[in-house]
Each structure stands twice: as C-alpha cells, then as structure tokens.
C-alpha cells in the first residue's frame, strides 16, 4: 500500500535508517497510535526501505491469538535465521534456543534461566555481523509474554551493535521492550512518534488509490469528518460510498459507530463459504492452506475469492493473513461462543497431544471441567517451563486449575500453587503473591500447603521477618517430605544470614544437609553442603575443608546450578576472603572457564570481579588489569545495579591503593550509595570502609572513626565474621584513626576486639596485621622497642601468608620506628625492602612515605647499594641465597623477564658476568657498607614523639 501524508514520519525513519551504519551503536523508533491510524503501513514501508538500503531485517507481526503461545514472536523474528546462528553458541544457549524455537535438537533445554535470553542476545549480535540489522515488531501489544521478556533482556544489553529496533503498538502498551531498549540506546538515538490522523487531501489520495476514483467533495468531507482522519476507518466508509450500485451521496452514506463495527460491516456481504475458513484463520496464529484443509477437508481457495477481492485477507505463499488485525478480531467476535469452542476442539486435534498448541485450543474449547483436559494442560505447562517460558506455563496451569473437577481437591490446589511458582519464575512476584494469598487459607496442613508457604516466603523477601515466619510454618506443615524440608531449611538459613543471625543460619544450613542426604538428591546435597560451608565461614568458623571438598566432588550432579553458585566457586570465594590467594585462584579460574563454556554472562561477570580482586591483592598487575577490563566490559552488558555497585567498589579499591584519594572518594561514595539502594550490605560496608581510609589519609581521623564502629556492628553483629584483607580495615583504619586523634584507650579496646577475632582464625595475614596495629599503638605510648618487636612478629606471620601491599606497609612502619631510634642501617634496610615490594604495586602514598623516611635516615644510598636500586639489591640477595629466577619472581611479585632485566643491570653495575661472581661482589659491598655506617650508628639513642603527640611529624 502506498503511503500518503506521512512526510514527517518518513523523514524521521529515513534519518534513522539512512544513518544506521555510522558506528554510533543501536537505535530505536516507537510508532504509537490508535487502531487503523496507519502504524503498520509505516512500519512495512520502513522495512522495505531498510532492505533497499542494505539492512538485514528480521520482523514479527503477532496477532491477538499469539499472546497465549510461548515464543511465537521470537519464532517470527528468527524464522529462517536461527539455525545459522546456533553453530558456535555455548551449549546451554544453543539447547535453550533450540527448545524455544522447536528446532531439531530441542530436547533437554538448559535449566539455566538466563541461557535463553543470552542466546537471543548472542543471536542478534551474530545476525548483525559487520553490517546493520533492523528488528521490526508490529502490533507489539500482541507479543507473547515469553518473547517480550527475553527480547527486553537482549535489547537492553546492546552496546555498540548497529541494530535499529522499530516497534509499532497501540497507546498505553506495556513498556517492557521499549523501556529495556532505553538502557542501551542514547537519548538522541531513541525516538517516539505518535502517528497522527491524515489530513483531507491525503485521505482523498488514499481513497482514490484504493478505490480507483475519488468520491465527490461533499462525500469526501463527510468521510474525513466521521473517520477523524483514521485511514482504515475512512477506507471502510468509502467502500460503502462506492457500493455495488454506484456512488453514494453524503446524506446516504452509511456511518458505522466504531471501527470494529466498520470491520464487521465489511464482512457482512461475504459469501457463506468464506465464514469457516476465515474463522479458522482468526483462531490460529499464522494459518496455512494445508492447516485449513486439515480442519475443513472440502475447503477450496475459491471460497476466499470474495474476501481477497474485498481486501480482507491476502496470501503470502501458502500463508493466509488478514490485512489488518482488527479484521481478524471482527471475524472471531462475530461467531457465537459455542461455535468458537467447537472450532477450538477441532483445532486441538490437529496438534500433537500434550503440545502447548494442543493444550491451548483444548482450554479454549472446554465447556466443563474435565480430568483429562486438566492433565493435558498441566503436562503442556511443564513443557513450556522446560522451554524457558514460565509465563505460558503459569497460564496453562491456571487453565488446568479452572478445568479441574471439584472432586479432585488436591490436584486443584497443587495446580494453583504451581501456577504461583511459575509466575514468580517469570518475574511477576505480585501475581504470585496474589495467587498464593488467595489459595493458602483454603489449604490444610500438609505438603501442598508447605510448598505454597515456601513460595510465599520467597516472594516476601521484602520483609525478612515475615518470610521467616512463613518458612517456619512451612517446615512444620511439610514434615515427611525430605526434599521440600531441605529447600525450606536452606531458605531459613539464607534468611538468618540476611537478619544477621549467623547462629540460626548455621543451624538451618546443617539441618538442610540432613534432609538432602535422606532425600537421595545428590545435586541438592552438593548445594546444601556448600551452603553450610558458607554460613560457617561467615560465622567466623573458617573454611570447613572436608565438607567443602565433599560438596565440590558432588557439584557435577547439581543440575541447573550456574557457575557462580557451584560449590567450587563458593570454596574459591572463601579462600580469597581468607587470603589464601594461590589456593583460591584455580577454583575461580575453573569456574570462569565453566561460565564462558556455558554462556553464563551474569556468572562470568561476578567471577571476573573476584579474580580481579584476587590479582590486585596478589600484586599481579597485568593479570589484575586484564580481569578488571573484562569485568568492566561485562558490566556494561548487564544493566544490573548490583553489578554496577561491585564495579564502583573495585574502582575505589584500586584508586585508594595507588593513592588517588579524590577518585577513591568519588567511586566509594557512588558504590556505597548504589549498594544501599539495592540492599547489598557487604559492598555498602566495604565501600564505606574505603571512605574511612581516605578520610584518615586526608587528616580527618574523627570522621574516619565515626564510620567504622557502626559498619562493624552492622556487618558482623554478635558473630565473629570472617577475618581477611577484605574486613581487616574495619579495625585497622579505626585503630590508626584513634591513635592519630590521641584516643589511645579507645584504640586499645578496638585492638582487643580485633585480637579476639584474629586469635580465633587460622589466617596468618590477619595475625600479622594485628601485630602491626599493636606496634603502632605501643609506639604511640612511647614504647618504641616493643613496637619494633611487634613489627618483627608481624613480618614472621607475613612470611606464612604474604599479601604484598600489607607486607610493604609493615616494612615501612618497621623502618620508620628503626629510624626514630637511630638504627640507621636497619631502618634503611627495612625501608628499601618496603620500596622493593611497594614500587611494583604502584602504591603511591606508601611509596612516597617510604622514600621520605629513607631520605631522613641520613645514609648515602649509593654507599648502601653500590649503585644498585632497592629492587636490584633485593634480586641480588635472592640470587646469592640460591633461588632461581622463577622463584625470585614469585617472591617479589614480578615477572621472570623483569628479574632477568634486573640481573643484566646488576652484572653491568658490579662489573661481573655470572651468578657465581655475584656472591663475592655482594660480600665486598657489605664490608664497605659496614665500615661507612659504623660511625653513623654511634651516639645517644633517642625516640621520636609518639604518633598523635603533636601535630607535625619529623
């Protein structure tokens, strides 16, 4: 159909599609308007233009009948292109997409609920290739909910792809797809057009083009006036004006009251033979001639000649389609309800038993409750859920409940509870809650009621206390069902953690293990074992090694568990948080590979975050930067505020380490604010701890202290919590802030609390940091010798579990104390060792302090090093001790190539050629150093004032 009077809309479309290949990323255009206003005409015109401009086009034009069928819209979009994109998809994504689209290998859809949405995102990106892709959706209000959900996920995660999304819909439609697109598309490339009525000249041209002549001017004015410029309405009235007996005058013009009346009027004069085939076409999605013949064996295409001539239907190959959705609605509504039900029963017989289409037509054709029909609907619901369409599963279960006979009370109740579960799975928690709250009062104590209470407890995570009461009642009602009891106990454990009751969390987690073991479900047992391990860890009981090893051994049987949540990941996180970095690394690397292989982008993002954190702590800058960059990229794809909060915290963590305090403050504030909004207490606490570090470094110890006690209380409550680099700052920063403010008794109380926790842990790094904090406190009391002994104890613990930044910090504090008591050689040695550790870490503030302290020692650096830098000196010492280059690299957290570079420069500086000569050269240098510094070490021993004793430092 030619387009009339749409110059401004077509100009906008041309601007959007004509510039689509400019590399500016995705774009979108929404066409909104009342039925018949011309949205579909504009969209089809845009599709044709896009093809002429070289765009690849995928399109869907759903009808009202499509809303009840899972992935009908998705099937339209990927018709003919999905199979070419399956090759190379991660296996869970490939299986999920195959199942959703009923492709050849549709068996065994992935249990991962994210697999299908991510498969759709991957498919869209593959379809773009190096060109441009137009995704066109007409009458989006009829898009089935399952397609809407996965498309919203995928389109909301577009970033740089040259994809244009064109949507036509009626006003007031669901904003799911369009709103999601707003997360991906910049405002200047996201347009919305309200399609306006045609003016009178355009209406005249449209009628002339369709009817072969223009009506008399009075008739035209009347048509335009009555239709309000609605093209479809105007054409329908014009058909009467050019009736079979000639033109009609304005006074004789038949005026239908509504547009649907006008559509019905167009159908009134059709031959009776067209009624049944048209009704079948209206009741089916995408009907074909062969399908119509399967219901009407005597059907002939000639039966539709009149309907085709009147522009009611048209053929596209073997497919029959109405020229406008309102015509299909009019055909369907004109039929009597009994006729429609009988037709649906006939249509049901054309599909495989228990298929979703078969069940859908059975439900619409049912005249009374029936056991068999209800069972078929329930089976189809399971199939829909397996294909990743919980929305359709919920609807089918509701139909099954409606058609369950009154004498099958338990089956009716269970189907209603199951429908609520599927609504929750689809993200419709409000509907799940309404369903459960309506059915639970009717349920007697027993397994069905326990199952409903468990689901309602999940829904009511907006109020942890209410959720706990519901779950506890479910545990009572569900006695005897071990698997259900394990699930409820696990939920109670999670609620205990959220409520800060770690004792209860641990109790429920262990009870869940007992139920899981008795249930014989190895996958459930793996998950409950891992949960026990995690709750024990958070309660301060350390890593439950044997229990976690058992969970990891069983994790292959935990079907449906994604990579972030498998026991191996849980163990890797616990090892990381315990500062056992070398043990944590292989578990997290394995989980990362699994998430990549399975296409679990959300899980991949979370694991990348932890690996980036691990490598920053380990001092492996190249690996840390690689993981950080990958995490940033995946974060851009997620459109998830919790993931965004993790990224902001990581950026603040990196900034404070390198000494960029303004950046650390900005990112830390943003992380804390966002984490508070999404309810992530851990990131909120750790971000606030970074802010306290910044405030202390900026000379605001009181502000730093004010933050920290509430954080400790809020995060740990009465429990011991886990002790590691992630949590230690909650105490150490506070102790240092109190020392700086000369509040030494308060600092001592905080140190005692820290000691209670570290002494109960098995983390040497935590003990080392505690010794350092004690050294700072006793130094502030003027006991410098005791402080140095504390630093030496700290270094002994650092040797057992080294965290490079904290090792460097302890060496710095030890060297500072040694300088104060005039032990210049020892001070210089400690400070140079500190720089050797800190310089590769680019720890800006600590490096500056170490260099400042080294400058105050008063010994010439050249005499001490013999022309070697501190890093070179440290490498030389390790070579003399017999270590290999690889071992030295591991000790100093540098690459083997860097060690080799240092050795080349050392040989050149000392005039030697081999490792054997190096030992003698270093021995000669030590004798010279001792002779030059003996006199400098003589004299009275004095100490600097304690930290905080006066405003300025020496």
Tell me what you see in this structure.
The protein is mainly alpha-helical. It is built from 48 helices and 9 strands. The strands form 3 sheets. The chain has a 5-stranded parallel sheet with strand order 2-3-4-1-5, sandwiched between helices. The radius of gyration is 37 Å and the shape is elongated. The N and C termini lie far apart (87 Å).
Mean pLDDT: 85
Radius of gyration: 37 Å
Distance between the termini: 87 Å
Q: Strands of the biggest beta sheet: in what spatial order? A: 2-3-4-1-5
Strand content: under 5%
CATH superfamily of the domain at 7-194: P-loop containing nucleotide triphosphate hydrolases
The CATH topology name of the domain at 7-194 reads Rossmann fold
Q: Tell me the name of the CATH class of the domain at 7-194.
A: Alpha Beta
Number of strands: 9
Shape: elongated
| Major β-sheet annotation | 5 strands, parallel
Quickly count the helices: 48
Secondary structure category: mainly alpha
CATH A-level architecture of the domain at 7-194: 3-Layer(aba) Sandwich
Percent of residues in helical segments?
Answer: 55-70%
Unreliable stretches covering 5 or more consecutive residues: 105-110, 861-865, 932-954
How is this structure best summarized?
The chain has 954 residues and is mainly alpha-helical.
Write the layout of secondary structure elements.
Layout: H1 7-18, E1 27-32, H2 39-52, E2 56-60, H3 72-78, H4 82-86, H5 91-100, H6 115-128, E3 133-137, H7 145-155, E4 163-169, H8 176-182, E5 190-194, H9 200-211, H10 217-227, H11 231-241, E6 242-243, E7 246-247, H12 259-268, H13 275-283, H14 289-295, H15 305-309, E8 313-316, E9 319-322, H16 325-334, H17 337-348, H18 356-365, H19 371-386, H20 390-402, H21 409-425, H22 429-439, H23 447-459, H24 464-477, H25 482-498, H26 502-519, H27 522-538, H28 545-554, H29 567-577, H30 581-598, H31 601-618, H32 621-638, H33 641-658, H34 661-678, H35 681-697, H36 701-716, H37 725-740, H38 744-759, H39 764-780, H40 784-800, H41 804-820, H42 824-841, H43 844-857, H44 861-865, H45 870-880, H46 885-892, H47 896-910, H48 915-933
Parallel strand pairs: 1-4, 1-5, 2-3, 3-4
Antiparallel strand pairs: 6-7, 8-9
């Amino acid at each position: 159909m030619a387009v009339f009077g749409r110059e401004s809309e077509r100009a906008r479309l041309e601007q959007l599609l004509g510039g689509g290949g400019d590399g500016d990323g995705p774009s979108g255009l929404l066409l909104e308007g009342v039925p018949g206003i011309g949205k579909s005409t504009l969209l089809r015109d845009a599709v044709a233009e896009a093809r002429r401009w070289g765009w690849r086009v995928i399109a869907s034009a759903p009808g009202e009948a499509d809303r009840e069928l899972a992935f009908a819209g998705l099937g339209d979009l990927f018709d003919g292109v999905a199979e070419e994109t399956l090759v190379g998809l991660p296996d869970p994504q490939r299986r999920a997409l195959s199942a959703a689209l009923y492709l050849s290998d549709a068996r065994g859809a992935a249990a991962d609920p994210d697999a299908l949405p991510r498969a759709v995102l991957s498919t869209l990106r593959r379809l773009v290739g190096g060109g441009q892709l137009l995704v066109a959706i007409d009458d989006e209000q009829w898009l089935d909910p399952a397609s809407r959900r996965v498309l919203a996920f995928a389109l909301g995660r577009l970033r740089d792809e040259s994809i244009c999304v064109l949507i036509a819909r009626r006003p007031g439609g669901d904003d799911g797809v369009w709103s999601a697109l707003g997360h991906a598309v910049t405002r200047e490339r996201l347009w919305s057009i309200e399609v306006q009525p045609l003016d009178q000249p355009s209406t005249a041209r449209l009628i002339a083009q369709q009817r072969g002549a223009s009506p008399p001017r009075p008739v035209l004015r009347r048509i335009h006036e009555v239709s309000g410029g609605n093209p479809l309405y105007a054409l329908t009235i014009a058909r009467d004006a050019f009736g079979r007996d000639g033109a009609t005058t304005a006074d004789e013009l038949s005026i239908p009251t509504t547009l649907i009346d006008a559509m019905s009027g167009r159908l009134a004069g059709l031959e009776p033979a067209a009624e049944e085939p048209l009704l079948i076409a209206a009741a089916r999605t995408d009907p074909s001639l062969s399908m119509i013949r399967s219901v009407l064996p005597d059907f002939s295409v000639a039966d539709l000649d009149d309907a085709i001539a009147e522009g009611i239907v048209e053929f596209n190959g073997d497919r029959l389609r109405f020229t406008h959705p309102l015509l299909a609605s009019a055909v369907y509504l004109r039929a009597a309800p009994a006729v429609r039900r009988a037709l649906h029963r006939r249509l049901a017989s054309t599909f495989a038993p228990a298929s979703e289409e078969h069940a859908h037509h059975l439900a619409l054709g049912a005249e009374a409750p029936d056991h068999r029909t209800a069972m078929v609907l329930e089976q189809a619901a399971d199939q829909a859920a397996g294909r990743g369409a919980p929305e359709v599963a919920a609807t089918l279960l509701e139909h099954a409940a409606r058609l369950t006979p009154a004498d099958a009370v338990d089956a009716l109740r269970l189907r209603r509870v199951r429908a609520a579960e599927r609504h929750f799975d689809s993200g419709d928690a409000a509907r799940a809650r309404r369903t459960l709250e309506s059915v639970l009062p009717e349920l007697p104590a027993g397994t069905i009621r326990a199952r409903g209470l468990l689901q309602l407890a999940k829904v009511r995570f907006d109020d942890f206390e209410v959720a706990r009461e519901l779950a506890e009642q479910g545990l009572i009602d569900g006695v005897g069902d071990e698997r259900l009891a394990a699930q409820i106990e696990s939920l109670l454990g999670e609620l205990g953690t959220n409520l800060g009751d770690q004792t209860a969390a641990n109790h429920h987690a262990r009870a869940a293990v007992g139920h899981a073991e008795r249930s014989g479900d190895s996958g459930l047992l793996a998950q409950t074992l891992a949960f026990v391990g995690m709750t024990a860890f958070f309660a301060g009981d350390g890593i439950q090694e044997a229990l976690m090893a058992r969970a990891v051994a069983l994790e292959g049987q935990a079907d449906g568990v994604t990579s972030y949540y498998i026991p191996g990941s849980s163990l890797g996180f616990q090892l990381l948080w315990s500062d056992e970095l070398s043990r944590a690394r292989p578990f997290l690397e394995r989980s990362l590979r699994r998430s990549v292989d399975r296409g679990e982008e959300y899980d991949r993002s979370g694991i990348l975050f932890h690996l980036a954190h691990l490598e920053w702590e380990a001092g492996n800058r190249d690996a840390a930067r690689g993981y950080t960059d990958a995490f940033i990229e995946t974060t851009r794809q997620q459109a998830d505020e919790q993931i965004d909060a993790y990224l902001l915290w990581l950026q603040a963590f990196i900034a404070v380490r390198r000494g960029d305090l303004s950046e650390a403050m900005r990112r830390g504030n943003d992380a804390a604010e966002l984490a508070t909004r999404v309810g992530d207490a851990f990131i909120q606490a750790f971000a606030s701890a970074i802010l306290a570090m910044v405030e202390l470094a900026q000379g605001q110890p009181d502000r730093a202290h004010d933050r920290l006690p509430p954080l400790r209380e809020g995060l740990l409550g009465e429990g011991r919590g886990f002790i590691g680099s992630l949590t230690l700052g909650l105490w150490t920063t506070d102790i240092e802030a109190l020392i700086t403010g000369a509040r030494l008794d308060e600092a001592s109380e905080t140190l005692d609390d820290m000691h209670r926790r570290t002494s109960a842990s098995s983390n040497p790094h935590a003990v080392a940091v505690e010794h350092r904090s004690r050294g700072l406190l006793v130094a502030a009391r003027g006991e410098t010798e005791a402080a140095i002994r504390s630093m030496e104890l700290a270094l002994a613990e650092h040797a057992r579990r080294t965290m490079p930044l904290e090792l460097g910090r302890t060496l710095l504090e030890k060297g500072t104390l040694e300088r104060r008591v005039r032990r210049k050689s020892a001070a210089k040695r400690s400070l140079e060792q500190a720089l050797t550790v800190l310089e590769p870490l680019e720890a800006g503030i600590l490096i500056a302090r170490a260099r400042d302290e080294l400058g105050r020692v008063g010994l010439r650096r050249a005499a001490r090093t013999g022309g070697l830098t501190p890093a070179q000196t440290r490498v030389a010492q390790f070579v003399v001790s017999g270590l290999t280059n690889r071992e030295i690299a591991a000790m100093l957290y540098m690459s083997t190539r860097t060690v080799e570079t240092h050795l080349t420069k050392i040989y050149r500086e000392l005039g030697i050629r081999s490792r054997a000569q190096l030992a003698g050269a270093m021995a000669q240098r030590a004798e010279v150093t001792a002779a030059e510094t003996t006199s400098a070490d003589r004299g009275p021993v004095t100490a600097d004032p304690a930290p905080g004793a006066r405003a300025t430092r020496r």
